[in-house]
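Fold it.
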Amino acid sequence: MGAWGHKALESDNGLDVIDCIKEYVSSEYPNTNPIDLTLSEVVNTLQESGFFGKTFDEIDFLYDNTAMALTELFLMFKTTGQIDYEDEEDEIKDLKKRVKSFTGDQKSFDFLLQYLTDIKNGVPDEDGEREIVELWKDSDNYKEWEQNLDTLIKGLKTGVSN
């Protein structure tokens, strides 16, 4: 699974999501000025990069982990006012210094909530059980992972109303 903790950002896939966002920020905003980032542009970038399926019927561990990781990043910004992932080697890719705002819209909230709710409800993949749920159920950290999922859903719902 490539994870060292129960959060999506504590996994290789989570770090890949961060790298994709860093690449997007540095290519779309090629100077070091602080930027206003939107959840919709990040979702679109991740979709174009293959981190999400074309439809919700395409169920994959990567897509589920991406939805959780992106929600963790969004809620991190909402809580702390920054995305706490620096890039000491490249100032243009330093999300901690570059992102001055990170806002969401209803369509993006609905998109992520659909993913998270499908995970929570265990909507099965073609093999009968959603892989991310199956893997975490077999781990010693299932309860922590499930609590994190509940927190992400609640946080997104709160983000919609703010």
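Helices lie at 12-28, 39-48, 61-80, 95-98, 106-120, 131-137, 142-161.
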